[in-house]
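Re-run with default settings, no changes from the original entry. Doing this only to confirm the output is reproducible before filing.
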Amino acid sequence: MAAAQPKPTAGTARRLARGCWSAFWDYETPKVIVVKNRRLGVVYRAVQLLILLYFVWYVFIVQKGYQDSETGPESSVITKVKGITSSEHKVWDVEEYVKPPEGGSVFSIITRIELTRLQTLGTCPESMRVNNATCDSDEDCVAGQLDMLGNGVRTGRCVPYYHGASQTCEVSAWCPVEDGAAVSQFLGKMAPNFTILIKNSIHYPKFQFSKGNIENRKDGYLKRCTFHEVSDLYCPIFKLGFIVEQAGENFTELAHTGGVIGVIINWDCDLDLSPLKCNPKYSFRRLDPKHIPASSGYNFRFAKYYKVNGSTARTLIKAYGIRIDVIVHGQAGKFSLIPTIINLATALTSIGVGSFLCDWILLTFMNKNKIYSHKKFDKMVDAPEQSAGPELCASKHSQQDPALMDPRGLAQL
């Protein structure tokens, strides 16, 4: 019969507590094993060098990892267009060809129009562009039918079209409908010389930094300058033809079909340098997909109303134009201790990847990987149950390391 286990006394408990308290303050450090293998050493140093180059060149130099940064500045944009142009028997000024006229960051410059003059409320043939509008008799036209893509409500009659021998269903609408009497006029002859003033100011609230894109001069500088990337960077007055050209487009073609051009203003500022080094960078590109016919081009409709013999009439205008979208973005950075410490700690920690990789190679692919595994890892056997006591919290260093008995063992690797 097994002997009864002695019950722990109060003195034993105190010794156990003192042992655990003493072991709590022990310092442990991993042992270092030097492996004399040139190929493995080359891999180890190469990995360390690549990691070091990544952090020094990319993280700290390119990405400026030592800076606190802020993206998306607060921005305001005010625009103003100047110039006149002409079409058949008419001169057009800014009030007529710029929509909307408020001078925001998105506006359109009309370059071609299709006019449907003297429309009045009445009945007339539907446009042949509308599906199922053509007919042979009144039976093909259902009275009261409304096509959401059409121009009005059908009266139930089949009537001759505006020109040719075709017939379409009659509708109650603004007549004549657009397709029946539209006249095209081109306004783009002098449009390349239109000037566009783009006033932009930005603010980075985190760094309390503000700046604008106009030079602070009182000698009438803006009245005689146009934008030049080198000599007149702070004269944000652009010719429409210059914008279209910089976007890689043909002006005449764009003026006929319409399109959307983006004026991108980029404010990337290193606030560790002088504020004079924080300058806007302009780029231009077409935003609508011109190679996809279904979604390329730009046009819109509006009408001008007036009275004729006491009745309301209107001129419907389908306008094709160049829409300008001014887009502002940027990023500001300034030295900060916190991101510097975080990136330095990450760099030092990442250098340890070389050790992990070489350990994996040694333990997996080397011929004498078992010898290395034996030297690197100590295998401990559970102590008998009766030995539990004050030694339970004893320092691991009090146990003799078998590797210390064979300091030349790694010569076998």
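The radius of gyration is 41 Å. The mean pLDDT is 85.
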